[in-house]
Each structure stands twice: as C-alpha cells, then as structure tokens.
Amino acid sequence: MRIGHGYDVHKFGSDKPLLLGGIEVPYEQGLIAHSDGDVVLHAITDAVLGALALGDIGHHFPDTDANYAGANSSELLAHIITLAKQRQWVLGNLDVTIVAQAPRLAESINAMKQHIADLFNSVPDNVNVKATTTEKLGFVGRKEGIACHAVVLLKAHQ
Questions:
Q1: For residue 50, how many C-alpha atoms fall within 13 Å in the half-sphere facing its CB?
Q2: Which parts of the sequence are marked as the site Transition state stabilizer (predicted)?
Q3: What is residue 112's predicted lDDT score, i.e. its pLDDT?
Q4: Residue 133, marked binder
Q5: Is the Cβ–Cβ distance between 21 and 112 less than 8 Å?
C-alpha cells in the first residue's frame, strides 16, 4: 500500500465557471488559476503523486508552461493515474475534504464522487467527498477562496 496527501487552494475572482471535482458548480464566480482551477482534482493529483513519491502537480504541470494554460484538471489527473497504473498501483480508496464557506456543495457531491471514480476506473464506494466551512474564519470564511485536502490509498494491482 502507498498513502499520499494533497492540498490545494485557489482564490475567487475569475469569470470562468467554478469547477470542483470535475463538475461545474453554480456560483457567481470561478477560481483564479493557470489551469481550470479545480482545487479538488488538484489536491487529488498531489495526493496520488505523493503516494507515488513523484513530486507534486507543479513539477509535472508547471504554471510557467503555456501548454497548461486553462488545462482541464480531469485530463491532468488522468495522466497521473496512468503513471500509477504503469507502476502497478490502483486506487484503494480516496477521502476528500473541500473547505468552502460558499457555495453550498451538498447537491454536487454525488456527481463529484462519480466523476472521480470514473477517472480512476473505480466505483463511487471507493471515493468519499465531503465539504465543510470554517465558521466564517480566515480567507475561506470571508469567501475569498476554496481549499481542499485529499488523502489517497493506492494498492498494488493484482
């Protein structure tokens, strides 16, 4: 088994759609980022890279590279999942915590779980996505941005 942890944060202020877990979430503004700004998929990507001991998302997809401007985070994560499979690792389970004062995410959670499970060629029972607020404390509480933590367990492919 291999365990990895990922964390990402982006601030609000974009006129792009808000993408979380590969799903468009209704909200008045998107997140500012070099790519599509999906903090959920970025945290998961970092968690998988951590489990593989292969650095972080910035090493593989640098924000100084114009090729990744506006990049689709689902495609970036899919590439890292392919690296894991090439090394004979598959998803055991994944736990994601989205930290957001706004928007409310309850109605989007199941769609996120399904999308993420599909990327891993797994089932939603192996993916947990939950959301919490910061009780109006800090940058998240002031609705300045969203943060996300992800913990992944990879298991040897049999």
A1: 16
A2: 34, 133
A3: 98
A4: yes
A5: yes
Are 99 and 146 within 8 A, CB to CB?
A: yes
Say which CATH number the domain at 28 has: 3.30.1330.50
Q: What amino acid is encoded at 155 in this protein?
A: K
| Inter-residue contact 147 to 9 (CB < 8 Å) | yes
Does 120 show up as a binding residue in the annotation? no
CA distance 107 to 141: 20
- 46 marked ligand binding residue: no
97 is in an annotated binding site: no
Q: What is the 3-state secondary structure (H, E, C) of the chain?
A: CEEEEEEEEEEEEECCCEEECCEEECCCCEECCCCCCCHHHHHHHHHHHHHHCCCCHHHHCCCCCHHHCCCCHHHHHHHHHHHHHHCCEEEEEEEEEEECCCCCCHHHHHHHHHHHHHHCCCCHHHEEEEEECCCCCHHHHCCCEEEEEEEEEEEECC
- Which domain covers residue 44, as residue numbers? 2-156
pTM over the 0.85 mark? yes
pLDDT tens profile 15-29: 999 999 999 999 999
56 is in an annotated binding site: yes
Q: Give the separation between CA 72 and CA 47, rounded to whole angstroms.
A: 18
